């Protein structure tokens, strides 16, 4: 039986740029950072509100993966927020562009999308 999602793994095109985005812009906290010499790869473990959620990797020469429009595979990563307008304003003030806020016709909840530095679609979903 499954208990929960343990983590999401992301491969960054530019490790330092993505590290800055996920820590300084989104506010995730670093749990551990390890350089794996045999792979010439960094691994950064990140937490949100004390819960481990993202492994950020660097792999030299990793191929690009299409994410839009609606490519097969992982569609997006969604973060829940209490005040969507406040979070959008915060991201915008840090130079991150968000799509227009929409309302889910089934739940009545508001949401928006933005992208990480490699174009990975990220969502803010207001609870």
CATH topology call of the largest domain: 2,3-Dihydroxybiphenyl 1,2-Dioxygenase, domain 1
Strand order of the largest sheet: 1-4-3-2
> What's the quaternary structure here?
single chain
So what's the overall shape? globular
| Number of structural units classed as domains | 2
* Straight-line distance between termini: 27 Å
Number of contiguous helices: 2
Portion of residues in beta strands equals 35-45%
Secondary-structure content class:
alpha/beta
Q: What is the CATH architecture assignment of the largest domain?
A: Roll
Order of helices and strands: EHEEEEHEEE
Q: Quick one: CATH superfamily of the largest domain? A: 2,3-Dihydroxybiphenyl 1,2-Dioxygenase, domain 1
Q: Any idea of the CATH class of the largest domain?
A: Alpha Beta
Given as residue ranges, the uncertain stretches (5+ residues, pLDDT < 50) are none
How many strand units?
8
Can you summarize the main beta sheet? 4 strands, mixed
What does this structure look like?
- This protein folds into two domains: 1-61, 2,3-Dihydroxybiphenyl 1,2-Dioxygenase, domain 1; 75-127, 2,3-Dihydroxybiphenyl 1,2-Dioxygenase, domain 1, CATH 3.10.180.
- A hairpin with a 4-residue loop joins strand 2 and strand 3 (41-48).
- The model has no long low-confidence stretch (mean pLDDT 93).
- The chain is built from two helices and eight strands, in the order E-H-E-E-E-E-H-E-E-E.
- Strands 1-4-3-2 form a four-stranded mixed β-sheet. Strands 5-8-7-6 form a four-stranded mixed β-sheet, covered by helices on one side.
- The protein is α/β, with parallel strands linked by helices and 127 residues long.
């Amino acid at each position: 039986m499954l208990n929960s999602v343990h983590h999401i793994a992301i491969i960054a095109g530019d490790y330092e740029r993505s590290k800055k985005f996920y820590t300084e812009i989104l506010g995730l906290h670093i749990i551990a950072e390890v350089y794996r010499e045999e792979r010439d790869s960094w691994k950064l473990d990140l937490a949100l509100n004390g819960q481990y959620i993202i492994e950020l990797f660097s792999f030299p020469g990793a191929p690009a993966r299409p994410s839009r429009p609606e490519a097969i595979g992982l569609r997006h990563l969604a973060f829940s927020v209490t005040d969507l307008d406040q979070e959008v304003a915060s991201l915008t003030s840090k130079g991150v562009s968000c799509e227009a806020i929409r309302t889910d016709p089934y739940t009545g909840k508001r949401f928006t999308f933005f992208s990480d530095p490699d174009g990975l679609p990220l969502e803010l979903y207001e609870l």
